[in-house]
Amino acid sequence: MTDDLFFWQQIPGAARLAARVVDEICAHHTVVLHVPERLPWSAAFHELVATAVHRREAARSLELLDAYEIYPFEEGEGSGLGFTEVPSGGSAAEASNAGTVMGSRFDEGEGSVRGTVEAFSGSSFAGASNARTSMGARSASGTTNARNATGGTRATNEQEIRDAFGDYLLTHFCRPEVQDGFRPALGYDGYLAACRDTTLGASYLWLTDVPAVAMNPWTAFLSDYQAAFQAAKRKQKFAGDGFACLLETTATEAFAKKGIVELFASDYLTSYDSYTFLFFRAGELPLQGTPAAVSYLRPYLAELARNLGGDDVEYSAALLKESARLLEDPVATCQRLASEGTASDGRPFPPAPDAAVIRRRTWATQIRLVFPWLEEQRIAFLDRHAAAAQALVTSRYIENGNHEEISDYHLLEIGNISCCKNDLEATERERQAIDLHRTARNDLAHLAPLPLEKLRDLYAHPLA
To answer: H or E element: which one contains 262?
Structure first.
């Protein structure tokens, strides 16, 4: 199973998030989904959810669309500090024909909905989540309320952003005669809520990459639309669902409004899920070495990849696949992946930290995994030579590192053991192992990560 499917189907937190999104979509709820800057394997997540939704509700279309297809926000997070120019001569027709991934148009067939879920065979649907297009392409495709555009304009307020959303719905989900009946004084939310001759109720729109600047106007629009739709439903006494939408955003601020479900991916995707994923995948690596050494190197590699990749599990997974190079030279491996590697959405991996930081994170991994193993080995050796060890601390004055007398043989440190190998009746094999363990412990105590050669020697010469 590939990394993307394994993560979203087998890892507990990821699977729960996908299942929750499916439930909310099938309940026809409007949702705000807060995701990290780098959502792991986002295309696989979108496809998995779409497939599950289609299995449960085949009649309803699910459209995945990059938010920049609706409005030409400034490239990037969308902080609201500025917006790009709308191309001169923009029109609703240009916006409509800008190549939405799974749009629906009445003029493409009587009541047809182009690109329902069964139409995504992997490329078209996944392509939407990878729609990190150039600024020029986004500008050309944005619907900046172009119905009234007469030339180059600059977006400067929330009302214009809100109207662009309403204009997109009117253009893509309503018949031409319904579009012609719209008047600005009616407001998009109220007009669309009162219209019955639309495909809004049979559609679900999933907007990806929604910038923070769009969240307030668009959530307000959706909340107002739902209130108006319910009022019209009570007045006109008709059945059916209104329009529902999912806004996927990296904005961290909560935008809770009446009638909108708010989900935070961080409530589901935790460091535990990253560790679980990496430990499972490390178990499949074809590592070289003795069975004992390999059994220790697998968890070490998983921990090392997690420490170096941080919260970016895709980056950690890429490091893990470079297991031989990662063990040999963590610094060079991180730097090469950062400069040459790309994530599943086509974006480059984040820049590598300084070499000193990489070495310190490597050391931290060894402190967490190797250091406790050294202590376990020390205790096991002393217990195997318990009689000689107890006789040693009883008959001789021996100090620990704090110049305190040792009376319990379990407190003999590796330095003490090294100095008293004869008294402890250590075998030749044990003497060699003691020297290796003492050197390794001293290196780690002085913040020096152990190179691969020392790690292999260490694991090949246990004291237990």
So the answer is: strand 260-264
Nearest to 113 by CA among 122, 123, 100: 100
The rounded distance, in Å, linking the Cα atoms of 47 and 8 is: 10
Determine the Cα–Cα distance for residues 178 and 197; give it in Å rounded to an integer. Answer: 7
> Burial code of 368-396, b = ≥16 C-beta within 10 A, e = fewer?
ebbeebbeebbeebbeebeebbeebbeee
pLDDT of 101 higher than 70? no
- Report the distance separating Cα 51 and Cα 57, nearest Å: 10
The pLDDT value given to residue 83: 34
Of 265 and 132, the one with more pLDDT: 265
Note the pLDDT tens digit of each residue in 42-89: 999 999 999 999 999 888 889 999 999 999 987 654 433 333 333 333
Q: Give the CA dihedral 13, 14, 20, 23, nearest 10 degrees.
A: -140
* Encoded tokens for 222: 């959706």
- Please state, in angstroms and rounded to a whole number, the distance separating the CA atoms of residues 194 and 229: 7
| Of residues 271, 257, 460, 302, the one with CA closest to residue 377 | 460
- Residue 81 has what pLDDT? 32
Residue 302 corresponds to which tokens in the numbers above?
């998983």
Contact status, residue 269 vs residue 17, Cβ threshold 8 Å: yes
